[in-house]
């Protein structure tokens, strides 16, 4: 679904395109769990697949989640979306509904901690996972086996800001008939559309950039329409019907929502939908602020290293410039004196000491002691996460205020 209008124009008018109820300009919050039918044949038709597009039971979606899904499909220029209760539910939905015992997955080593944890679960279920340095396509190519079905990367890894070789991996997957799945949580479709580099599925934690206000959990899987599902062996016979571009999402919706039940609530779908309306404004503001903060930190004598793709010192800076509209709001850095890291964070007065990302408020966290604690020292070393690494999720405060706060906290570091 492509449009010639601007990104935000489409987003703010998306609900209207879905049909206005009583003149309401927002899609209403539909709380009904049951949907009734005048005729029993229609109810039977829903179960037997002859009546399409009807709501039946809210575990499989509501008019409110459907309106958000249409908005996300438009934002990623895809062919369909399934929403979930959280980003992790969306990621599990992809892995658990599309992979089977004996299959193999190639994944970037630089991924969010809980995604990394799920790779262990996949191993327990008999699904092989090879973790590679995905910044160069050669490493991905070398890990592919005859059992490989899927390649999984994050566009901009959390917390190390590594950028996978998106173009190279997209090409490789196309040549080998593999499904390329990209977690686009951090950048959002305003800054980058993974479909432009060949991703077949895009996953999101909607909790972050797209909702943007730290007030709702959500996740989504968007199909870009680029992958040929008719050649994918794991689609059940029952879902091999109609438009082949919908086969993957149909299986994800039936297995991931109907059977596993990780459904997004209508209330959260509404909050995310409203948050999405200001996505472009927030991404422009936070990207500009984060670049200024990154430059300030890079020049500071107490700082050893800054990880931000907007800086020319970043190893994939040129890749970011080529593919991304701007470098986003995620920034990590290391203090020269790693032992001073916790006291430095305690001295910050504006940044909230909290896990989570993509809020209107700036959030700060020591990475090794928290989100990567359970992973253990060996995995942290492999992922390049030092004991002194600090992650910043830059919010909407005035940039000068954020820099003043960092300055006073660094004075004694
Ligand atoms: N993917 C990425 C890149 C994330 O950073 C996160 C959470 O931080 C998730 C997925 C999981 O999302 P959620 O917290 O909505 O389950």
UniProtKB/TrEMBL annotation:
SUPFAM superfamilies: PLP-dependent transferases
Keywords: Pyridoxal phosphate, Transferase
Cofactor(s) named in the record: pyridoxal 5'-phosphate
GO biological process assignments: cysteine biosynthetic process from serine; L-homocysteine biosynthetic process; transsulfuration
Single GO MF descriptor: cysteine synthase activity
Residues the record lists as N6-(pyridoxal phosphate)lysine modifications: 208
Protein name: Cystathionine gamma-synthase family protein
Native source species: Xylophilus rhododendri
């Amino acid at each position: 679904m492509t449009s010639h209008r601007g990104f935000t124009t489409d987003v703010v008018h998306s609900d209207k395109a879905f049909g206005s109820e009583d003149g309401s300009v927002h899609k209403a919050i539909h709380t009904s769990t049951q949907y009734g039918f005048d005729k029993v044949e229609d109810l039977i038709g829903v179960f037997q697949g002859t009546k399409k597009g009807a709501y039946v039971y809210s575990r499989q979606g509501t008019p409110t989640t459907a309106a958000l899904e249409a908005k996300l499909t438009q934002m990623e220029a895809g062919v369909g979306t399934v929403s979930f209760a959280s980003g992790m539910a969306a990621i599990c939905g992809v892995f658990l509904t599309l992979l089977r015992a004996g299959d193999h997955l190639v994944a970037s080593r630089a991924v969010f901690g809980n995604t990394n944890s799920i790779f262990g679960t996949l191993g327990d279920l008999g699904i092989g996972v090879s973790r590679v340095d995905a910044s160069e396509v050669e490493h991905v190519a070398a890990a592919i086996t005859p059992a490989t079905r899927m390649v999984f990367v994050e566009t901009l890894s959390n917390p190390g800001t590594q950028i996978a070789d998106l173009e190279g991996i997209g090409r490789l997957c196309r040549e080998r008939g593999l499904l390329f799945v990209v977690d686009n949580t951090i950048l959002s479709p305003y800054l980058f559309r993974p479909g432009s580099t060949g991703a077949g599925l895009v996953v999101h934690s909607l909790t972050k950039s797209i909702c943007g206000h730290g007030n709702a959990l959500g996740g989504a899987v968007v199909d870009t329409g680029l992958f040929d599902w008719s050649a994918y062996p794991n689609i059940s016979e029952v879902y091999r019907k109609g438009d082949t571009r919908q086969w993957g999402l149909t299986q994800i919706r039936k297995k991931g929502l109907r059977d596993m039940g990780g459904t997004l609530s209508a209330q959260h779908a509404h909050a995310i939908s409203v948050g999405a309306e200001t996505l472009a404004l927030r991404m422009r503001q936070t990207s500009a602020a984060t670049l200024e903060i990154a430059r300030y930190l890079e020049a500071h004598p107490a700082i050893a290293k800054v990880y931000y793709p907007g800086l020319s010192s970043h190893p994939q800076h040129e890749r970011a410039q080529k593919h991304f509209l701007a470098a986003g709001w995620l920034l990590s850095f290391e203090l020269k004196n790693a032992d001073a890291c916790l006291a430095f964070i305690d001295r910050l007065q504006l940044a909230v000491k909290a896990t989570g990302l993509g809020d209107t408020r700036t959030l700060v966290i020591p990475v090794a002691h928290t989100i990567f604690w359970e992973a253990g020292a060996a995995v942290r070393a492999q992922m390049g996460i030092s004991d002194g690494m600090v992650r910043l999720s830059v919010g909407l405060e005035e940039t000068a205020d954020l820099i003043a706060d960092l300055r006073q906290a660094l004075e004694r570091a």
